[in-house]
Structures are given as C-alpha cells and as structure tokens.
C-alpha cells in the first residue's frame, strides 16, 4: 500500500520508503533497523533508486564518489559508474591494505573507526559521499572528515534514508556538509 506523500517531499519518497524493510530489535533491543536489501532485490526499484541519484548529480562537477562501508559501497559504486567517475571506499578499521588515515566516531549503538587510503583523492577533488542512511550522523561526519583531511571537498553527502529523530542529519548539516536523502522515517 502506498502512503500519500507529504507536501514537502518528492513523489518518489513514498515509493522508496514503502520498499524498505523494518527489522525490530536488530542488531540489539530497541533498534528499528531499516533494511535496504528489498530495494536492491527488485530490478525496477533498484533502477529508480539509482536514477534518483544520477539525475541529481549528473550536471555537478564531481571528480569521485566515495561510499561508506558496507551498504554505501553498493549504491556509491553504481552511481559512480553511471556518472563516469571513480569510486573510493571508506572502510571499517583494518580492511584497507595500503597507507590509511582513520577517524573514530560514535553511532547509535556503540563506536567505530573508519579508514581511507591516504592517496584516495587528490587535493581539490570534488567528492560525492554516499551511505545507505543517516542515523546519528557519526559515520557520515567521520567519512567527510577523512576526505577533508586529504584535501578533498565534500560537495554533498547523500543517503537513501534519514532517521531525523536520531538527530544525525541536523549534525551533518551543522558541520557545514550539504545533505541529500531520498526519504525519511520520521513518524513512520
């Protein structure tokens, strides 16, 4: 069943949101996990999702797309390919084989460290940063900080889902990072 869209969100938001599975109490009690795998499994929905991002960024002057481990890799790599750009992985600690820089951050149920190859981008590169969702904002901010530390400019951060009640999207924007999300789960 499709919900009627609110006046301030695009018509595709309900379509995408309706295909995201909610898994209660995962990975721990009290967490409502928003699972994007149904979006990826359906060929039409996956194409619509990719096209939303491609259309938004096709006229931007970008040099590379960076995706956050692990679900940001899926969307980020496809969007990079469609935009004829390179792709940079931002990984969990200990997963990259070359010289890295790292950033620790807090997330909604613990803390983590992300890493980036020290030569992932050139100074001045304009980067689109992609992940699957924004919860507390820690992952997105840490990833943006890594890119800035090697001299790249984060043109925009993007995600499929915003969980505004956790405050992350507000924190990302307070850090001066422009943010685009396809849909949110406030009050849903």
TrEMBL record:
It catalyses: AMP + diphosphate = 5-phospho-alpha-D-ribose 1-diphosphate + adenine. Residues 54-165 form the Phosphoribosyltransferase domain. GO terms for molecular function: adenine phosphoribosyltransferase activity. The keyword Cytoplasm applies. The keyword Transport does not apply. It is found in: Cytoplasm. Its EC number is 2.4.2.7. Keywords: Cytoplasm, Glycosyltransferase, Purine salvage, Transferase. It comes from the Bacteria. Pathway: Purine metabolism; AMP biosynthesis via salvage pathway; AMP from adenine: step 1/1. Belongs to the purine/pyrimidine phosphoribosyltransferase family. Homodimer. Catalyzes a salvage reaction resulting in the formation of AMP, that is energically less costly than de novo synthesis. This is Adenine phosphoribosyltransferase. The gene is apt.
